[in-house]
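Lay summary. Proteins are chains of building blocks that fold into shapes, and those shapes determine what they do. In this project we predict the shape from the chain. Here is one chain we studied, written as its sequence of building blocks.
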Amino acid sequence: MTVFKSFFKIANKRKASIVIPLLISAAFALLNRSSVIEKQEEFSKQLPNIVLINHDENSISSGLESYLEGKVIFESFDESEIEEALFYRRIQFALVIPEGYSQRFIEKGEVLNPEILIDSSNAYIAESYIQEYLSSVKALVNLGYSEELAVERVVGLKANDPSVSIHHSGQNKSGNLYVGFSTIEVYPIMFTLMSILIPSLAVFKVYGVKRRSEVAYMSSFKRNAILMASTVAYGHALWIFMKSFSIILLRDNIELTSFLYSSLNSYVFLWIVIALSFMVSEIAKTESSQIAITTVSSLGISFISGVFVPKELLSPAILSVAKLFPVYWNIEANSAIASGKDIVSTMSTPLIIQCLFAVVFAGIGLFVARNRKTRSGY
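And here is the predicted shape, written in a compact code that computers can read:
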């Protein structure tokens, strides 16, 4: 317990290192929420404002009014007021049906001459409705239908107001927002853990500290085992704290499935950082070298792997180099989660590669530690 308590006491003295990464996380989380606002993904047509004056008492002209119901908004203006209403944009479309028009339309195909607001798309929408109705009625009359039956058929078959819905085959926007943040969160987690764990582990590698612990009643194996357990425990505590912080920031934008997968990916990455911290603590003997390795490993590798810049904007040469580091594969796993297609199969390879990185880092650290003990005799 002495080693365990000592490690936590040493690590807690460096807990100020978590402040800047937390601020970075908060800034990115707020930026994500503001740039990816949940939008309603259903679009309804705007209804044109029109004036329809019917001087032709016929089933075809009367049927036109019925056909347009629900498709346009009828405004009440006299013929003398139409030009003024168009000028002040109170309406976009005006149509006066002259007397006897229906008969001339069936016999000769006479065309109506509406007045429209030229720069209004709604005006052309209204005109298309009228052309659609008249063409359908005439086609049925030509097929032998009476005018009344043709009008009844066309009005009865008119479509309801159309709407367009976008259906994502993958995760919803909330899930993608959290997964996107999980990608950005790689840097704060990596920097925080390495900034605290590496110096804390390095303290126990100092000759005087190591010798004092070895002359105590505790065996070297037991001491190292407790030290490793302390590192894992403290790393988990930091990871849980930072993940809890992100959950609080994005609590309204979390989808359960994507959250669980991204948490699994982040947890695997936690073990990579713990193993990397152990390896660096065995290799880097001075504080300056530890800081340099921490900065390059966290910031530099995060940049070339696509944490801050989308991978699509990085050159193939940079991405080829990035594949040599675990951060790249963590982001690959997050991309698989965000796609929502066969998540388990697509993210399994990046996860396995990350696990191999953790094993390699731990193996190198153990190898260096063993060789150092053999050469130095302590």
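What the prediction tells us: The chain has a mean pLDDT of 81.
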